[in-house]
Every structure is written in structure tokens, then in C-alpha cells.
Write a structure and sequence with these properties.
Radius of gyration: 23 Å
CATH topology of the largest domain: Aldehyde Dehydrogenase, Chain A, domain 1
CATH architecture of the largest domain: 3-Layer(aba) Sandwich
CATH class of the largest domain: Alpha Beta
Largest sheet: 5 strands, parallel
Number of helices: 10
Strand content: 5-15%
Structural class: alpha/beta
Helix content: 40-55%
Distance between the termini: 42 Å
Strand order of the largest sheet: 3-2-1-4-5
Length: 299
């Protein structure tokens, strides 16, 4: 079940934009429109029932955000939330979603505001918007050679990974090879990201614009530093993002060496950085919590 909370100013537009993809992906939806502009969303749900949608697929909950909105975000059956509205409410929803560890899509405030001050040179946009400089084919020409360079240094990286994590050499070599394959795969895919644009009314121009997040943060565990480096960074770089990686403090040597090799693959690029990010920001989160392959050994 997906929870959808929409604002007052574009009730039908916002409801359709959030509900349609959720339904296409096989989810049921509970939507809370603004309490002051709810009629069009209610009518959309009624029409959906008329054309054959089963009862319970599109659900509309009416009330204030404090009462109904919080209940939706907190409910155990809701496994994802989409919210459009103010920063303050988004921050409150983010806290609940973080506590429950569920994915959350936020659109907060205006999306096209730019305020430029006299000290604009201090913003260093080259660090935050390197995606604007790198065309997909150029990104591919950086990522694919990086995979090949990793393979060229596989012996030294294998020894480093084994020493850093305590793994057998055979397992460490496998992890290094997998990391290289990630960069080769996404290097080849970088200029092949396509998407169909949904048609609209005749006489209207409609286009799809692919916009990178800008900077993505990656926090990886101690047990698979090389493999997680490739699996996490390669797709982000292929899509044109800058990346900030934090490896585990106990096993960081392989990640540091791989970042150095990335500099060799394209020294003029600034995609791979090792530094701190400011906190208290809103963005997409991807979690992989706990082990995915537990094993029980009986005597």
C-alpha cells in the first residue's frame, strides 16, 4: 500500500501524478487530499470505481494532516509515502518514515527557486553539478576503463581486500572482479537510458527530462567494501551524479585505493569525492538492512 498526501493548489493533477504510477506497479493506494480542496480527488476515485476498479484499490481519507496524514504515514500497512507540501510537514513525515524505515518521496516548497548572493563563488558549483558537464557517452568512457583498470590491478587489490577484511584470497578476488564488472556494465549503459514520454492532449508539447540528483551519498558496510563500492557508485556515476562515499572505518583501504584508480581513469573528473556532507537535508534513501541470506547451523 502506498500513502499519497497532496496539497491544496493542484489537487487532481497531484493526485493523478502520484496514484497512477503506484497503481501501475501493482499497489493499492490511500490518498489524503487537502481538507480544503478534496472534491476532485473524491470524484476521481468514484469514477475509477465506475470503470471497474475493485473496491479498496483507491482509498480516499479525509481530514487534517495532523490527524489523518500522520495516521497514514504511521500505519503498518503503508509501505511507501509520497508527499507534496511544506518543508515543515515534510520534515515531520521524514522522521516517521525514518523510524519505520520505509521509502519516502518528498516534493517540498518551490522546485525552481534560485537566490544568488554576492559570495556565489564560494558555492563551488563544479563540485555539486558536475553532471551538467558530463554527457552520457563521456561518463561511459570514464566508467568502462575504470572497470578495466581495476582488473589490471586485481592482484594488488585482492591482497588489500583480503588483508583489510580477513577474507580468503579466493573470496577477495571474486569481490574485486564483481566490482570491476559493475563499472563495465554501467559504463556501457550510461548512454542507453531511455524512457517513453506519456502522450497528452493534441497541441501540447510534452517532453521527458532526466535530471540527476546532483550529489548522492553512499555508506557501505565492512564486509564487502570492494563489491559495495562498485555496486553503489557505478549506477550513480552512470546517471551523472557526483558521489560521496563513507566506507566502514574498519575496512576502508580498498575503497580508498579504488577511488584513486578512479582518478587515474579520468583525472579531470570530480565525481568521486571523500568528504563530509551537511546534515538535515531531504533526499531519496535506499536501505539494505541486516543480512539477506541468514543460515542456521544445527548440531
Amino acid at each position: 500500500m502506498v500513502g499519497v498526501i497532496t496539497p491544496w493548489n493542484l489537487p487532481l493533477n497531484q493526485a493523478a501524478r502520484a496514484i497512477a504510477p503506484a497503481l501501475v506497479a501493482g499497489n493499492v493506494v490511500v490518498a489524503k487530499p487537502s481538507e480544503i480542496t478534496s472534491q476532485t480527488t473524491i470524484e476521481m476515485a468514484r469514477l475509477a470505481t465506475e470503470v471497474g476498479f475493485p473496491n479498496g484499490v483507491i482509498n480516499i481519507a479525509l481530514g487534517t494532516g495532523l490527524d489523518v496524514g500522520e495516521a497514514i504515514v504511521s500505519h503498518d500497512a503503508v509501505r511507501k509515502v509520497a508527499f507534496t507540501g511544506s518543508v515543515g510537514v515534510g520534515r515531520a513525515i521524514g522522521k516517521i518514515a525514518a523510524e519505520r524505515i520505509i521509502p519516502l518521496a518528498l516534493e517540498l516548497g518551490g522546485k525552481s527557486a534560485n537566490i544568488v548572493f554576492e559570495d556565489r563563488h564560494a558555492l563551488k558549483p563544479r563540485h555539486l553539478a558536475c553532471a551538467a558537464r558530463g554527457r552520457p557517452d563521456r561518463r561511459g568512457r570514464f566508467l568502462t576503463p575504470l572497470g578495466q583498470i581495476i582488473l589490471e590491478h586485481s592482484d594488488a587489490l585482492t591482497a588489500l581486500e583480503a588483508r583489510d577484511t580477513g577474507k580468503p584470497l579466493s573470496q577477495a578476488r571474486s569481490d574485486i572482479t564483481i566490482a570491476a564488472r559493475y563499472f563495465e556494465f554501467y559504463g556501457a549503459a550510461a548512454d542507453k537510458v531511455h524512457g517513453d514520454t506519456a502522450p497528452y492532449l493534441a497541441g501540447h508539447f510534452v517532453a521527458t527530462e532526466h535530471i540527476p540528483h546532483g550529489v548522492t551519498g553512499h555508506i557501505i558496510p565492512w564486509n564487502y567494501p570492494a563489491q559495495m563500492f562498485g555496486r553503489s557508485l557505478a549506477p550513480a556515476l552512470a546517471m551523472g551524479n557526483a558521489t560521496v562515499l563513507k566506507p566502514a572505518e574498519d575496512t576502508c583501504l580498498t575503497a580508498l585505493r579504488l577511488a584513486e584508480l578512479g582518478g587515474r581513469a579520468r583525472r579531470e573528473a570530480q565525481e568521486v569525492n571523500r568528504r563530509r556532507l551537511p546534515h538535515r537535508r531531504f533526499f531519496f534513501l535506499v536501505f539494505q538492512n541486516g543480512g539477506t541470506s541468514p543460515a542456521m547451523m544445527q548440531p
